[in-house]
Description:
There is one protein chain. By secondary structure, the protein is mainly α. 49% of the residues lie in helices and 0% in strands. Helix 6 (110-120) packs across helix 7 (125-134).
Amino acid sequence: MGFVLADQNNWLKRTNDPPPFEIIPLQTFANLRNAVNTTPPRADFFMWEHFTSKKYYANNEIKKIGEIYTPWSSWKIVARDDLVDGKDDERLKDMFRAIDEGVEYFRGHQEESVEFISTELDYERQDAREWLGTVEFAQGVRGVEEGVVGRTIEVLRKAGVVNGEGVGVEGMIGIKRA
């Protein structure tokens, strides 16, 4: 998301420019919070999901300085080439069906979902309800839209993460969304 922010602010002008910031992998949310609060700081800023961060803003452990939205959906499903080459592989069909059923169950059992989110994911109950109001689930998880992958590659190319050579959009999509 740092590269998305940089792209939105035109900090990624040419693919051969050095990155506008250093990425420091810190592994956990607790490590990220600590990194901006140590003296001297180990990081200048970090990006994290709104509702997960909310209670830390409230208790003044961290300060919110802005928001950015992803230009792609939160989750993508990835499989080995040999599974995808056989697009009719029963294991993939079973997986897609199970995920779709899980999403439908989640949608249809809102109070149970709130309970799970608030107890297992460290959200306040009200935040869990509010989060559910913002979430948009896919109608069927099978397949990927070409435009999503293309936009992602473009940001990563500008950021110097990928060089634009090799596998293109077509080669990265095993199952296109109809």
